[in-house]
Amino acid sequence: MVSSSKVLTAPRGVSIIGSTGSIGKQTLDIARAHSPALSGSAEEAIRIVALAAGKSKLEDLKEQILEFQPDLVSVPDQASKEELFNRLKEHGKSLPLPTIMVGEEGLLACAEHPQAGTLVTAVVGFLGVKPTLAAIKQGKRIALANKETMVAAGHLVQELAARHQAVIVPVDSEHSAIFQSLEASLLRGRPQEVEQVLLTGSGGPFRTWSKEAIAAATVSDALNHPNWSMGAKITIDSATLMNKGLEIIEARWLFQVPESKIKVVIHPQSILHSAVEFVDGSIVGQLGLPDMRLPIHYAIFYPERVPSSRVPRLSLSQIKQLTFEEPDLERFPCLALCQEVARRDDSSACVLNAANEIVVESFLKGKIGFSGIARTLERVVGEHKPIKAPSLEDILECDKWARQQASLTLAALQTP
Description:
Elements: E1 14-17, H1 22-33, E2 48-52, H2 58-68, E3 72-75, H3 78-91, E4 99-102, H4 103-111, E5 118-121, H5 129-137, E6 141-144, H6 147-164, E7 167-170, H7 173-184, E8 194-201, H8 211-215, H9 219-222, H10 232-240, H11 242-254, E9 262-266, E10 272-278, E11 283-287, H12 293-301, H13 333-344, H14 348-364, H15 371-383, H16 392-414
Parallel strand pairs: 1-2, 1-5, 2-3, 3-4, 5-6, 6-7, 8-9
Antiparallel strand pairs: 8-10, 10-11
Helix pairs in contact: 2-3, 4-5, 5-6, 6-11, 6-14, 10-14, 11-13, 14-15, 14-16, 15-16
């Protein structure tokens, strides 16, 4: 189960890596409602001490800096640093400017900021692995919104968390629901009483489409998610059900349960965010509106329940129906591939994750069709020689190999 031996009751400072993305912005919305000036007590106050963001939204980052006045900021490269500095200077306000760092060094500095009790890992992809591990080594609380960290390096994360008494609280709505369900039943640490984990998913935009129609889907079709507003990469993953497959691997490590005990259930309304079935037949789940601010808020204030004006409330009397169905593995082969990889418990998960990042980017650029995503991933995973219990060096090497192999495979598929 998730490490819980160290509990932080009052986050004094929060670092966010990925602050201009969807999760990052919603985290700042929570912080806005709990600023030291507005909070009724110091224990409920949040101070943003460090922000890290990509180079595509420097204007958003500038506005975040002006509002939250962090000590430290990280951007990808020197050019981004100079542009951000100029934007801040042009604004004209006589505010103290933060220290601006670049690249991996900056990400690690944000993760390790001495005033940050909590790190919100909100970046997308493998980029989140090193800073998350660095924060764990310092015993920080991790509000984990980056599933790729657990997919690629789940065993390392859990080993380090146990060693350094770090608290890992998932921010993915599904894993937050599972975490809360296990908490509510007072059964954490007793895996023998868990019959199965019920991992729900909306089914994405192609839930009712035929196999032929899905194969011909366009980028705009795939980005048209029925329930959630997310970044492009995770939205495509939702359309292929790769997102749900990666969540199987994430759940396997977060909750220390085998793949055979994790069942995906399609739930189009996205109200039951996931559940746990126990050996006595009881099913405990967490319900809420499809809004990420609730799991973010829970992760930051865990183990306490703190009210927030930013978290929308669910009214049960307004729910007309809740429906559930089995996923179709033939129409969504990425999910079947993830289930197979989750059973292996080796470096295949890292390879799958890295290759998927390359393939989704290629699809978003219009270089391959939708059905080419699964075909490419199956080839890359099939060509990999798995490593049991990979070290961090092994994981980094597998990630590099998978990206190169995916690019080569894509090039071969595009050759007439």
